Amino acid sequence: MEKMLEKLAEGKCSRIEEAVQAFLVDGEPVSCQRFGSGHINDTFLLVCQDDERKNKYILQRMNNEVFKDIKGLMKNVSGVTEYLRGRIQEENGDPDRETLTLIQTKGGAYYFTDSTGNNWRMYRFITGATTYDVVKKPEDFYQSAKAFGHFQRLLAGYPVQELTETIPDFHNTPVRLRTFQKAVEEDICHRAAECQKEIQFVLERADEVGAVMNLLQSGQMPYRVTHNDTKLNNIMIDDITGEALCVIDLDTIMPGASVFDYGDSIRFGANTAEEDERDLSKVSLSLPLFEIYTKGFLEGCEGSLTETEIAMLPMGAKLMTLECGIRFLTDYLQGDTYFKIHRERQNLDRCRTQFALVADMEAKWGKMQAIVRQYGSQNVR
User: Fold this and answer.
1) What is the value of pTM for the model shown?
2) What whole-number distance in Å separates Cα of residue 40 and Cα of residue 150?
3) Nearest Cα residue to 205 out of 237, 173, 252, 253
4) Helix (H) or strand (E) holding 138
5) What is the pLDDT of residues 229-274, one digit of tens each?
6) SS3 letters across 341-379
7) Which of 43, 126, 210, 332 stands 20 to 30 A from 14 (CA)?
């Protein structure tokens, strides 16, 4: 174990042994290995041995560069997970498997700051479940939809005003638009000339970008506890039943719009092409996948959404896709400083893919609305 920790410490996760010793674990640490495919935090699987069994934990070094307010972030995570445990117990579920369980430090805190300023947290490892990076079959997409809908329902009574905004204006589409317009005006990399078609695409839809934020700010749509990263790989699927078990990666939990969580899943999971596909003829909205996700999400919500929220689901999908394209285009104009790229003009290709998907949504708008009405009428509050 000591050699393993030393090896890990050679990388960017120094003081890992200090972190391991800070938490209240059952047994003695026997192994610690890098785990998962996440790109933001450094994640490890820690195994501890006691007299009877091996106990597994997830140890994470949180990214201080991405998350500036670790105290607020962990207040969100601890508050939401404790609330979820109570709701799951009320419904005779298994809170040890159906939500994350934070491990406290020996000082009674939910995170630990080591001697170099790194912040660490620990969860109990959920056994018998797996996460998947891509949608391999429609059932997986359906299960993720039910899980995120169920997540919304369980947290419908949570005091949203107590949540910290961990990444300010993360899905504030009007703010994203203003940042984009500034990038176009400044044109620091002299790239605007080659993006005129894409720039015009955004400007033609400028009046729509505030549709959801206006409803939130006017009180016509409620602020919800939103996950803000509703990809398939943030759902644990039970290895035996194949059913969604637990929503994970709660770092971006914030007050927001339910339709944005729904919409980001559609943007990611119902696109027929890769995110940076250059052949735009391959890009389209899969209506079968759109339908199966809509069905699962609304079934999971079980009537906890308002009529306005349900009616705005298609707009949530469109705006999340448009916003993502705007962010890719903005980054391209500013010199590719935010999103990692692996080839020249990749962010411009990503932008074009998102905009092609928006255009296809617009062409299928009536069908999208009809699908939402079909399942929404069965699940309205």
Assistant:
1) 0.91
2) 26
3) 173
4) helix 138-154
5) 998 889 999 999 999 999 999 999 999 999 999 999 999 999 999 9
6) CCCCCHHHHHHHHHHHHHHHHHHCHHHHHHHHHHHHCCC
7) 126
